[in-house]
Amino acid sequence: MCPRMPAQAVVPSLQHLASSTLCNTVLEVFHALHTQEASLSTWAPSLHSLLSLHLQRSLYQELVEEVLLRLDLVMASSPALRPAVRLLVPALLGPQLRRLDFTRLRVVADKAIVRSLYAALPQACPNLQHLTMGQSFFFLPELVSDLDTKLAQMPRLTSLSLHYIATDSILTKLAVHCPNLIQLSLKGSGKVTDECVGDISGCSHLTVLDIQGTQITGNGLLEIIDHCPQLAWVEHCPFNCDSDFKIFKSRQEMLDLIQKGYLELQAQNNRAVNSETPPTDATGVVKTQYNIRNFWLFNPKSEELLISLLCPKLEKMRLDFVFQDMTFALDVAPLSTFKHLHTLDLNFYDNHRNPLLFKILKTCGLRIKTLIYNVFADYRSIVDCHNIIARTCPNLTHLTFIGDYRVEGQEDTETDALLQSRTPDFQPHPRLEELKLGGYCTDGRLVWLLAGAPNIRTISLDGNLEQLGDGAWTRILAENSMDHLQSVWFNTSTKMSMASIHRILECPRVRRVGRLIHLVEHTGGARRDNLTQLLEKARRENWGVEFVWVTPGPILGGTGEGDPPLPHI
Question: Are the C-beta atoms of residues 171 and 199 closer than 8 Å to each other?
């Protein structure tokens, strides 16, 4: 059995206690009236008036979110209650509401509810600051055809996310209607083109822009960047900017702008290369420099890597490689000029090239704290990549390694033996805080990564976990007590048993463990009583641990029947 853990559940705040109490009261009345449509129709408006007049803003926001979360479960488990839910949900909107997200819950995916909520905007929520719309409207494009007139009445918006549904007409006069916008996401909105660039460019306070999946070209993006001096983070796709991402008017213009700087760089000594002096043209005029912090290049040429000359504040770089389309050798030396780079996202889509990985990381690895490496190759051929990363990125705190796979007939022990031996003088990732492993996970691979990582907080395992067993956790915890560990997540079937869960619970700060259905004795969903016993023990001893059976639940220590919240832009 699991050893006794100290009580560690967080004491809820007074506001949270008040919110939970009010939520329970509201839902008790709702369930009592749900069969009486006339009574419910009268009670809902009175509830709206009561909450709007008497609740402090932050309490109101928390209460609405909690009620919506609970109604989400009601609709999922009791379809017969949907008509009653449709009457209640619109009554929850009010002037204190600052955030409204139409994408997080199933309750707002109901077409009737979506229509009523949309109709109430913005009169019911005149002080809204964060609005997210997307999946709920994806199949109702006619409903949002007048969204521009709605936005015209929401001048306080600072964050607007229109996923998959935005059009050029919706964004008409956006800067006039929403002058305080700081974040704008148009992700997946394929009908957005350069026609709206002028409207977006007027949002001079923008710091975050997501145009992935739109038709905004390199020309359009350059115009936006030129007119939004505070814009720092641009999420984009290299294939929706004229089939090749360009932060400039054309690929050739970018090459022309930095070619001279590239040639000059070759002639300068290291001191000049590393100086903070901005690049100048032949007349001595300082070239345009941008505030951009992230950049994405596909099959980059060496001179394109010199983007640091024009974006000196660059912090994150994504490099995508399809080697069958790459007919040139890459000189990675320009990566040494990135003074602020801390995040590197590398994608080797069609093969491994370990020597290229080594060259890239040897050049800039000392600065990297977050590395995302996606490689399509078998585990045996890429196992040495772990050695490369450990040797060249000693300051790594976040590692994502995904895409590799198992080849039948290869001995795991022989492959794991290729990992550089851990010694008192060499531990692979002593500063690691987060590990995401999405390939073929063996016991030896996991032990090698974690046994010497005392600061690890989050472990997320995906991909092929069929050979991952209890022995890995026994060996890891024999060397590393993982005192900071908070979350362990395994996304597919494993050889792990409940014995591994008991060992993980020995870590003093664990708050979340799942998915328990993927334990070996739970194949086919059997023996759910293990979950029931853990939940009961956790409640009795006040552990404060969320045990997830299938999907994360909304309540700490709950049954795990809910859906995980989606991240905000």
Answer: yes
